[in-house]
Design brief:
148 residues; mainly alpha; 78% helix
């Protein structure tokens, strides 16, 4: 019987491990942060959007940008879980977490911003690595190649 070596590169960075990373990142982002923001309505979207519109100076974009942040944290996270349009959704989540972590760093320093920074790093990792072997993107890609 071959012993299980957890630090073997083929096991540690396998497609199954990446699926777990993608699944739990997307699930916890949606469950803990995104869904309530999406369902709360335009007042909350306005407050979310003002974080970035204060920087760019266009207050009229507060609600659309706030909705986009709520969308990235909820629907976009669910798309990351199933691996559908993974890179665009990871980019939206990365940008949202970049804004959120910047705001938290300015407000409360490093002590209060570890969660947005963690999601920032995870979304960057998913953005760089793409959907992975176990994803709808990979399934669709393989079906399209098979047809032609």
């Amino acid at each position: 019987m071959k012993p299980l070596n957890l630090f073997n590169n083929s096991y540690f960075l396998s497609s199954k491990s990446y699926l777990l990373l993608r699944f739990f990142t997307g699930f916890f982002m949606c469950y803990s942060h995104g869904w309530s923001k999406l369902m709360s309505g335009s007042d909350r979207w306005y407050r979310l959007g003002t974080t970035i519109t204060e920087f760019i100076g266009i207050d009229a974009l507060s609600i659309p940008l706030g909705f986009l942040a709520a969308f990235a944290e909820s629907i976009g996270s669910l798309f990351i879980v199933i691996g559908f349009t993974t890179r665009p959704m990871a980019f939206l989540l990365f940008f949202t977490m970049l804004v959120a972590s910047s705001k938290k760093l300015l407000q409360s320093g490093i002590g209060g911003s570890e969660l947005p920074i963690l999601y920032l790093i995870l979304s960057l990792f998913i953005l760089v690595n793409g959907p992975g072997k176990y994803s709808l993107d990979n399934l669709i890609k393989s079906k399209i190649k098979w047809k032609y």
